[in-house]
Design brief:
By secondary structure, chain A is mainly alpha-helical. Chain A is built from 12 helices and no strands. The longest helix of chain B is centred in the first third of the chain and has 35 residues. The chains are: A mainly alpha, B alpha+beta. Chain B: One of its GO terms (cellular component) is ATP-binding cassette (ABC) transporter complex.
Chain lengths: ~300, ~525
Amino acid sequence: MSLQPSPLPEPHATDQNSIYEHQGQSMWKRTISQLIKRKTSLIGFSIILFIVVTALLAPVIATHNPTAQSITDRYLAPSSEHYLGTDELGRDIFSRIVYGTRISIQIALISVGISLVIGVILGCLAGYFGRWIDQVIMRVIDVMMAFPSILLAIALVAVLGPGLKNAMIAVGIVGIPQFARIVRSIVMSVKETEYIEAARAIGAKHGRILFQHVLPNSLAPIIVQATLGMGTAILDAAGLSFLGLGAQPPTPEWGAMLSDGRAALQTAPWVVAFPGLAIFLFVLGFNLFGDGLRDAIDPRLKE
Amino acid sequence: MKRKLSLMLVLMLIITIFVSACSKDSSTTDGSHSKGGSGDEKTLIFGRGADSIQLDPSKVTDGESIYVTNQIYDTLVRYEEESTEVRPALAEEWNVSDDGLTWTFKLREDVKFHDGNDFTAEDVVYNFERWASSSEFIYYGYMFGATDDNLKGIIENVEATDDYEVQITLSEPNAPFIYTLAMPPFGIASPKAVEEYGDDYFKNPVGTGPFIFEEWVPDDTITLVKNDDYFGEVAKIDKVIFRTIPDNGARFMELQSGTIDMMNGLNPQDIETAEADNNLEIIRRPSMNVSYLAMNTDHDGPLSEKLVRQAINHAVDKSELMTLFEGIGKEAKNPIPPSLWGYNDDIESYDYDPEKAKALLAEAGYADGFDVKLHIFSNPRDYMPQPKVTAQAIQEMLKEVNINVEIIESDWDSHLEAVENGKHDMAFLGWTGDNGDPDNFLYVLLDKDNAKKGSAGNIAFYKSDELHDLLKEAQIEMDQDKRTELYLKAQEIIHEDAPWLPIAHTTPPLAAHKKIKNYQPHPTGSEPFNLLDIEE
């Protein structure tokens, strides 16, 4: 039975189950019961579930081909034929948004995956080894944090070149500092505990100590950060696409849809309203759930 | 190298954001001042989609630069308010020798540059020598056939025969010559200012025109003030502020809310809204332009094949594209607009026929199609109000014949640089006629002389000797009927070789507050604002 609350690319989670089964099970159980108690996190979870199901069943749900144009049918208001109307090229907005969920989930997973893997590694290195390694890594992280995230992402895309793939990489890199800082602080506190000392005493190597003893203890906040990071990632990616730096036409990416539709803001507001609403829902879902998860999973962060 | 450059650009962007954030205060106070104190000072705030590139008209080809320089400079002769017939300006009268080679201009004696210096025949000579000194004076090259080996082109000699008389000697007759001299790029600059500012002259323009340059905040505003000593009709308004607002919709909202008085680049779908608004008025500029998709014949690969280019012409349904122009565009089949003499109406447009397109592609050996990049500009132009939407429509149509188009969107400045250097496979561009002569379209945009990388007007890099001979002959021929014949023939050759997919000729709409009076848009795309008035 999968107790993972969201589809996270969590590379360290699975191989730890056997060793920490007892402790893990109780932690997850407690988390679930906490989560269910909170209405907001349940709502968040439902929204995420809804989006994931939509993405999986996109070909079934969509009523039209998301890229098929019919210029004579442009700017049609919502109707029974086109549930959410049509855009500037007569494409069905409903179908585009439905297919857009796939792209958004892809962006969220890949960007957060990049942030997570690199952030965790950097955080571990900095926290565990300390000294100059810590200094070097954390100063670089500080520099990255000094920039507003969207600006840094624009800069990175300018270097990498526009496109969805590069936008995901840029958004991923921009998210690294959050993970690195969280992991570093936990590693620093955990490495002073007695059981780490014990592990060291019996001659465990650095790698073993880090991945088998230290990291599992950081899992909770990492998962929380990953969930919250999905909302931010989708927002940043939509921003990049809005500026023409992300998804390229005719990809039905929500940010790009917003950007393309704004010419008709006054005459056909549905062209921008629905993609905007979709982004809003997606971000809301992950934020509500992430907040709930944080309160439930990590007693230290509570209150 | 490229990455370093991009990083530099990004850093500059960040700095500009800060700078423009700081300068915002001054511009808003300016705006409110103009509204509050309208009793004394009349300020026109003109909103447009992109900033000028340089305020030295001799070095630019883009409409946004010329919009502004038209206010600052005068040419020897000028166009009539509504047509491209010429009238006296800096030159009071002129005559041409019987062989068509020697032109004599009698200049006005009451003209002063904005820096206070008198305007004399020597200044005209100085300007002509300057334009012939380097290939960076793009229009001089386009219009007078200058090449790297012969920077002077057909203008052999320019001489001051008197303080107020200039004689220009040509190496061969040139039919459009006098019309060409009225073009904004040949505005006379103050030699003192050119010397004084050197490479920075484009930021400190000094001419003789109805408005004097005051300030330029890049990507934000350009401010001009009235020239009280203007020799012609002194401007009715005291100040003109050109404001850059890239987004069509945002610009229109500013117009509705009254923070700008007038705008170009109206989204076609906003025309109806503007017409319904009691405070606003739609003004239509007479049509003399063309928008097109150029296919780079210089790149090895499918586009160098005539059959492929014809196939692309067959694969695009222009009547559908016209829907996207919302009534302001007419399908184009020739490079020159139908409003111009010499337009070949007998040419049959490539009909929309995907099957035929596929057959042609197969014949050329591309039955399975190919991948191609289409460079487009992000801001609207008069001849193409919605480049991205139009590009997506074409992308979808070409997909039908297995041609996969990747759209590459960049801002106006970088787009021009990319296409003039031939970095594209296919590219959108357009042209607004400068002097009402077919030569200004056909020679500038399609002759092999102008297919030079770096300053290409011919961005299809289409090189046809047959066409070149015809166009050259038409330049020398002084008889208009014979010239017409030559241009009709030229259009047939171009149609057959299909270096372009001609898209549309538009009637560009401008929107203005009703208080703007006496505004007469010129077919060449811009005009001086000295006749325009504001009545509250």
